[in-house]
Amino acid sequence: MAKVALITGAARRIGAEIARTLHQHGFSIIIHCRRSATDAAELATELNQLRPDSARVLSANLNDPAAVRELGIAAKAQWGHVDVLVNNASSFYPTPLASATDDDWDALLHSNLRAPFILIQTLADTLRARQGAVVNLIDVYAEKPLADHSLYCIAKAGLATLTRSLARELGPDVRINGISPGPILWPETGQGNQQDILDATALGRCGTPADIAGAVAWLALDAPYVTGQILAVDGGRSLAFQGG
């Protein structure tokens, strides 16, 4: 019986690379998407051509708690179990104090924090039964906040605490860890300080989606005595933070 992974925000970019990597490790993949249905369908076709009926697509709005619970229930129903949950989906945009709204709170806190909590809650039974694992995609900004992005940073800091807290609560049956990516892919809307970020990174370059996907695979499959940890995959970006 193949292991099953649910990956949120898996249709494109880093999420799609995580899906491909876990698929290469023999997983059946549940590709979650919201708006990127075409990309998700194309990725599922790609994976199913490599191994028949090894990838399926589920759509859900992660800002809607009821829809998130339905996603978890539907994920369990696909192949009867879930072994690995990767909370990859994330909303990211600036929210300066003077202009942040209640809608911004909902958009950033629900997708980045509440949805991962609900999915872990909904899947806890199958993850326990399968001695499964959860990997949460956090951010270096959870510890060193980015100017004018307070709500995003609050949400990711909360996700870091959720990772540690639920690792204690669900151990020894389920391992829960996090990854804090550094500069991997620039936001599609652009980012004006790209060179400054690279200059402050010890390796002096961007990472790749494969760097994150490899770390996810390691935490999910090859780290049986690791739980409640947050791994910085940032090329040494956090070293610059420590030095001011």
Automatic annotation (TrEMBL):
<dbReference type="InterPro" id="IPR036291">
    <property type="entry name" value="NAD(P)-bd_dom_sf"/>
</dbReference>
<dbReference type="GO" id="GO:0016491">
    <property type="term" value="F:oxidoreductase activity"/>
</dbReference>
<dbReference type="InterPro" id="IPR020904">
    <property type="entry name" value="Sc_DH/Rdtase_CS"/>
</dbReference>
<comment type="similarity">
    <text>Belongs to the short-chain dehydrogenases/reductases (SDR) family.</text>
</comment>
<protein>
    <submittedName>
        <fullName>Dehydrogenase/reductase</fullName>
    </submittedName>
</protein>
<keyword id="KW-0560">Oxidoreductase</keyword>
<dbReference type="InterPro" id="IPR002347">
    <property type="entry name" value="SDR_fam"/>
</dbReference>
<dbReference type="Pfam" id="PF13561">
    <property type="entry name" value="adh_short_C2"/>
</dbReference>
